[in-house]
Every structure is written in C-alpha cells, then in structure tokens.
Amino acid sequence: MSTPIIQINQFTVAYGSIKAVEELNLQLEEGEIITVIGPNGAGKTTLLNALMGMIPSTGSVLFHGEPLKQHTVARMVAKGVCLVPETRELFGVMSVEDNLALGNFHRWKIGERDQQKLMDDVFKIFPILKERRRQLADTLSGGERQMLAIGRALMAKPKILLLDEPSLGLAPKIVHEVLQKVYQLRNSGISILLVEQNARGALKIADRGYVLEMGKIVLEDKASNLLENQKIIDSYLGVGKSLS
Ligand SMILES: Nc1ncnc2c1ncn2[C@@H]1O[C@H](COP(=O)(O)OP(=O)(O)O)[C@@H](O)[C@H]1O
Ligand SMILES: [Mg+2]
C-alpha cells in the first residue's frame, strides 16, 4: 500500500475533562473516499473541526508520512485541506457567485488568478448553481445550499475535502443526489473524508468506513463489508434507518 495522503494517530480531543474523541487512528489514501459513521454526539464534528486545526488536539497528523509540526488552520489550508462544516457557513445575503468567489480568496491572495476556470468547473459539477448564480444564498433550497457549500470548498482547489454530514436535513431524493455528487468528486482527484449519520448513504459511496461511538473507533472495514456486517445492519442500517 502507498503512503496515505493523510494519517492521524492517537488523535484525542477534549472539552475540559471530557474526551470527545479518544486515541483515534485513521488514514486516507490518495483518491479514496472514507467515511466515519456514528450516531448524534459520537464526536464526528469534533473530529473534523480538530483535524482542521480549529480546536486543540493531541496525537499526530502526517501528510504523505511527514508529521505536521504546527497544527493550525493556516497549515491545513496550505496542505490543501478544506472543510465543509455542518453549519455550511454560507453568506445568505450574498449571491451564489460571490459565495463561490469567497472560496477562492486564499488562492487569490497568493497570486493565483484561476477563479473563473474554477467557477466554471464548479458549474459543470453543479449546473443548478449556474442557473442560480445571481440569486442570494438565502433563497436556495436545502440541497442547493449544500451544493453551494461544497462548490465553495472546491474553489479552494482542495486535495483533501472534509465533509461534515452533507446529507443532514435533506429530503431522501436530494440526499441521494448530493452523495452522488460527492462520489463524482473523486474523479477529479480529490481525497474525501466524509462523516455521516446516514450510514447507508455514506457506505454506498465510500471505499472504507470507520464506526465511531462515544469518541472511539469501534470498527473499521471496507465499506462493502460494513454494509453486510450484522452489527452495523442492526445498529445503523435497520428498517426505518435507511435515508437513501
Ligand atoms: N463546544 C463544546 N463544548 C463541550 N462539549 C461539546 C462541544 N461540542 C461538542 N461537545 C460534546 O462532544 C460530543 C461530540 O459532539 P459532536 O462532535 O458534535 O458529535 P457529532 O458530530 O457526532 O454529533 C458530544 O457529547 C457533545 O455534547
Ligand atoms: Mg456533527
């Protein structure tokens, strides 16, 4: 196996004395989609926010086998990591186009002038955003807002995309559409870490999956194996739990 594009070892995140993520080991290979599934409160958002450098953590983060010395948001951005947060963080009173342009701000600051091409690429993946490009973000539907949040992340030309529950709050048909788009992103060479409560939807598009419960990884396997694992079926994929 090649060296993972990103690997985290003994990764622990605490809120005061409470450990929300504990001694977690995880690796993402180049071009892979991996998913971390787990119930509400398992620590998924904490994991992504800490990995992005937004909250303190202990343990190590390695890029291509090289340990990261300073774990800050700026370093993570420089390494090509981009987070689409659970809260989406769109600018509601700005147009779709302007929200996308903001995603490119960091590149623009360092002298890159490829904004129009990147936006055209985003419009190819999400044609609906082109149609809506002059609309205010606040006027979009839930699915469109999620696509805009992902599109804005793509404007930063990420190597690694961290997605926090892109299916949250969306109707089943739209969940399927958004997850299919995530699946397509792999073709553009992006490695993806997807966290989801929607275990079935996530495992269907992922190569490998990790099951997070109360801050700890309790199981990891190929996604196709997890879909057939009786414990996973009973806990996460049972009748009525299918969202897509
Ligand atoms: N800012 C915070 N301060 C204290 N505890 C928090 C904070 N954010 C989350 N938690 C707690 O950490 C645990 C994991 O939360 P979270 O990462 O949001 O889980 P998930 O995204 O899987 O739903 C929960 O018990 C939650 O209550
Ligand atoms: Mg969360």
Structure description:
With 244 residues, this protein is α/β, with parallel strands linked by helices. It has a domain at 89-157. Helices cover 37% and strands 25% of the residues. It has eleven helices and ten strands. It has helices spanning 44-51, 73-78, 96-103, 105-109, 115-125, 127-131, 142-154, 172-185, 199-205, 223-228, 230-237; strands at residues 6-15, 18-28, 33-37, 58-63, 66-67, 81-84, 160-164, 191-196, 208-213, 216-222. A six-stranded mixed sheet has the order 6-7-8-3-9-10, with helices on both faces. The protein has a four-stranded antiparallel sheet with strand order 2-1-4-5, covered by helices on one side. A hairpin with a 2-residue loop joins strand 1 and strand 2. Helix 3 runs parallel beside helix 7 (142-154). The longest helix is centred in the last third of the chain and has 14 residues, at 172-185. It is globular. The two termini are 32 Å apart. The mean pLDDT is 93. The structure holds adenosine-5'-diphosphate and magnesium ion (MG). Residues 15, 20, 38, 40-46 line the site of adenosine-5'-diphosphate.
